[in-house]
Amino acid sequence: HAEALQRLERVDTVVFDKTGTLTEGRPRLVDVLAAPGHTDDDLIGWAASLEQHSEHPLAAAILEAARSRGLERRPAGDVEIVAGGGLSGRIDGHRLLIGTPAFLTERGIDGLEAQRHAAESWQSKGRTAVFIACDGSAAGVLGIADPVKAATPGAIRALHALGLRLIMLTG
Question: What does pTM read for this prediction?
Answer without folding.
Answer: 0.79
